[in-house]
Specification:
FAD/NAD(P)-binding domain, Enolase-like, domain 1, 3 domains, 5-stranded parallel β-sheet, binds flavin-adenine dinucleotide
């Protein structure tokens, strides 16, 4: 047997970021027939796990740590995927600036060679800069380690302040309220979830959280934190101080752009890709929370959701395999806040009319968004059937006439294309 290599052994694909998008990209590459080596390297010490339960079932103790893993330990070996955990890539060097082959240098001194590169690097929580921001008891939530520390802290707490009235902040607030804590949500804007939902939905959620016992303060700008070693209060710009044993800050994500920026692949929003997850350097793709795609109607768009991470990773894998990526699905998302299941499909940007279907007081209804008479998105609260039907209509390019949308006597499925 001759073991002399006649051609260079392929270094294969290196995927930096062992999260939802990185794992999906690796799996899809194998599904599409990739036989060369695939290495996934991630900075966290654990194999890829689900983040959504961290602010929901895991925080409230209903889900255990073992249930969070995205795949079992044998999955990676069975697909021939080398998974390296707890290793942070600090530098990328390309052999040739115009092509994706090169090497990655890690913090511990390893060198990982690649023929093709995928960046699925996600981001890190935006920090609140204010006096006292480093006190004990002030938490951020992105990783399982963050969630373990927060859960431990919440167990000892009676007064919880959540800074930021977005999805994650409100989910934490709901879990803390349900476990009997005195909870205050401080939102700097004049309504909750302002980046994502319409005013009518923001108002509904403010009322719903208040009904469940949380205090919701809008237009509430944090100016600092009180306490000696540990936080004891949150100072507001108007001079008020809110008592706190635990503070959780959820004010957005800063994308990990350093590596991509060193190759000139970023804009202000994140790593720039096309619909196939391709950056402008052939052989380098990006997907998930870090990737910015150009939307035909709305321009540069970066979405933070599991469905988006999965869809973009699949598209990026197809591109690396030289295939034409499928059409990106209609964006969808969910958020569980107490017993309110919010499900969203489509993009609300640029809407000019909202129709409410169902009874908001019963906490079971949908808001349908229109642009020039065309339904563009839906947000449903405890109305999964309306949500699913409308999502199918959006995916098929159909419509629900504005004057029929709010009429409960006309089932939405009437508008499904046959
Ligand atoms: C608390 C919480 C609740 C959420 N709830 C929902 C929900 O209900 N529904 C929903 O759709 N989405 C939800 N999301 C968002 C969703 O989890 C993310 O959109 C998704 O996990 C993004 O996956 P990703 O692979 O792009 O990024 P990530 O999961 O962040 O993975 C990126 C990984 O890359 C690693 N990395 C970065 N740079 C390097 C480097 N240089 N070297 C090595 N490793 C590196 C990071 O450590 C990280 O592990 C939630 C997120 C959080 C935090």
């Amino acid at each position: 047997m001759d073991y002399t290599a006649t051609s260079p052994v392929p270094a294969g694909t290196l995927i930096i970021g062992a999260g939802q998008a990185g794992l999906q990209l690796a799996s899809t590459l194998r599904e599409l027939g990739e036989t060369a080596p695939i290495t996934v390297v991630g900075g966290e010490s654990r194999p890829p796990y689900q983040r959504p339960p961290l602010s929901k079932a895991f925080l409230s103790g209903e889900a255990a740590e073992q249930e969070l893993a995205l795949r079992g330990a044998d999955y990676y070996a069975s697909l021939g995927i080398t998974l390296i955990c707890g290793e942070w890539v600090e530098e990328l060097q390309l052999h040739d600036a115009g092509a994706g082959a090169g090497k990655a240098l890690t913090r511990s001194g390893q060198t990982l060679s690649f023929d093709r590169l995928a960046l699925t690097v996600g981001g890190t929580p935006r920090r609140l800069r204010a006096p006292g921001a480093d006190l004990e008891g002030i938490h951020y939530l992105r990783t399982l380690d963050d969630a373990l520390a927060l859960r431990e802290s919440l167990n000892q707490a009676s007064h919880v302040v959540v800074v930021g009235g977005g999805f994650v902040g409100l989910e934490i607030a709901a879990a803390a309220t349900a476990s009997g804590k005195n909870v205050t949500v401080l939102e700097a804007q004049d309504r909750l979830m302002a980046r994502a939902v319409a005013p009518v939905m923001s108002q509904f959620y403010a009322d719903a959280h208040r009904r469940r016992g949380a205090r919701i303060e809008l237009d509430a700008a944090v100016s600092g934190f009180r306490g000696t070693d540990r936080v004891s209060g949150v100072e507001l710009a108007d001079g008020r101080v809110i008592e706190a044993d635990v503070v959780v800050v959820g004010i957005g994500l800063i994308v990990h752009t350093d590596l991509a920026a060193s190759l000139g692949l970023t804009s202000e929003l994140g790593i720039e890709v096309d619909a196939g997850g391709r950056t402008r350097i052939p052989g380098i793709v990006a997907a998930g929370d870090c990737a910015v795609n150009s939307h035909p109607l709305h321009g540069p768009l970066r979405l933070e959701s599991v469905p988006n991470a999965i869809a973009q990773a699949k598209a990026a894998a197809a591109s690396l395999m030289g295939r034409t990526p499928g059409v990106m699905p209609v964006p969808w998302f969910w958020s569980d806040q107490a017993d309110l299941k919010l499900q969203m499909a489509g993009l609300t940007m640029g809407y000019d009319e909202v129709v409410i279907r169902g009874d908001m007081d019963s906490e079971c209804f949908s808001a349908l968004y229109y642009r020039e008479g065309q339904v563009v998105s839906i947000e449903s609260v405890n109305a999964p059937r309306d949500y699913m039907t409308t999502r199918r209509i959006l995916e098929s390019g159909g419509n629900i006439p504005v004057n029929a949308a709010g009429n409960l006597d006309i089932p939405l499925k009437t508008h499904l294309r046959r």
